[in-house]
UniProtKB/TrEMBL annotation:
Belongs to the peptidase M24A family. Methionine aminopeptidase type 1 subfamily. The keyword Iron does not apply. Binds 2 divalent metal cations per subunit. Has a high-affinity and a low affinity metal-binding site. The true nature of the physiological cofactor is under debate. The enzyme is active with cobalt, zinc, manganese or divalent iron ions. Most likely, methionine aminopeptidases function as mononuclear Fe(2+)-metalloproteases under physiological conditions, and the catalytically relevant metal-binding site has been assigned to the histidine-containing high-affinity site. The gene is map. It comes from Candidatus Eisenbergiella merdigallinarum. This is Methionine aminopeptidase. Its cofactor is Co(2+); Zn(2+); Mn(2+); Fe(2+). HAMAP family: MetAP_1.
Length: 249
């Protein structure tokens, strides 16, 4: 497995790709409201990305038909935006978005509340977000890749939540998905040694119930097997010899 190291010039481009995506996410998050269709979110997201002079990297990726993945409630990831899928008060909605800036990819996801949500749903969103920050404490030169996985698992497991195993984080750069794969659950091996200059998309997907998921017949949508809620939080980060730099915040 070859993990690519980014040069100073590439890191500058990754920073800009990340900064621009963080703006897209801010505006998408601010637009969420009951009554909105998931297709409207996708259309807004694509416009925001293109207005920045960038290209949506999810569109047509392996045939994916939209620019933003919009996953509601028990949908884990890769929900396909639809005109007739209307958000309602109390839902949670995960938005996964990415873009290409001058040949460099960024990738980030957030789960948002639609209006007022239950305390249980709020906690799931917050624990999922925090698990990312627990994980990336280990994302520094000298640590190993699976220190990140183990830290996420240790934190999430305290809450009794299920950690999705079928989908993982990934390296990112001139491609959306590069080596290495980054599991969010505990690993026996140490994984590759982390070095300054690696760019990674760390993305815990956490279920309120069991870890098991199903893949729907639309070819994309991943749902929890037990129907429980699921949350997603992802940023593109840069490994350094100190604190990691979060490029999409
Ligand atoms: N953000 C997703 C990931 O991290 C990419 C979605 S794949 C797509 O792998 F095809 F839906 F775009
Ligand atoms: Co990703």
């Amino acid at each position: 497995m070859a993990v690519s190291m980014k040069s100073a010039r590439e890191i500058e481009l990754m920073r800009e790709a990340g900064r621009l995506l963080s703006r897209v996410h801010e505006q998408l998050g601010a637009a969420i409201r009951p009554g909105m269709s998931t297709l409207e979110i996708d259309q807004l997201g694509e416009k925001l990305i293109r207005d920045l002079g960038c290209v949506p990297n999810f569109l047509h990726y392996s045939g994916y038909p939209a620019s933003i993945c919009v996953s509601v409630n028990d949908e884990v990831v890769h929900g396909i935006p639809r005109k007739d899928r209307i958000l309602k008060e109390g839902d949670i909605v995960s938005l996964d978005a990415g873009l290409i800036y001058k040949g460099y990819h960024s990738d980030a996801a957030r789960t948002h509340a639609v209006g007022r949500i239950s305390p249980e749903a709020q906690q799931l969103i917050e624990v999922t977000r925090q698990s990312f920050f627990e994980g990336i404490k280990m994302a520094r030169e000298g640590c190993h890749l699976h220190d990140i996985s183990n830290a996420i698992d240790a934190y999430v497991s305290r809450f009794g939540y299920g950690i999705v195993r079928d989908l993982v984080g990934h390296g990112i750069g001139t491609s959306l998905h590069e080596d290495p794969q980054i599991p969010n659950f505990a690993q026996k091996r140490k994984g590759v040694r982390l070095q300054a200059g690696m760019t990674l998309a760390v993305e815990p997907m956490i279920n309120a119930g069991g870890w098991e998921v199903d893949f729907l017949n639309d070819g994309w949508t991943v749902v929890t097997r037990d129907g429980s809620l699921s949350a997603h939080y992802e940023n593109t980060i840069l490994v350094t010899d100190g604190e990691p730099e979060i490029l999409t915040l």
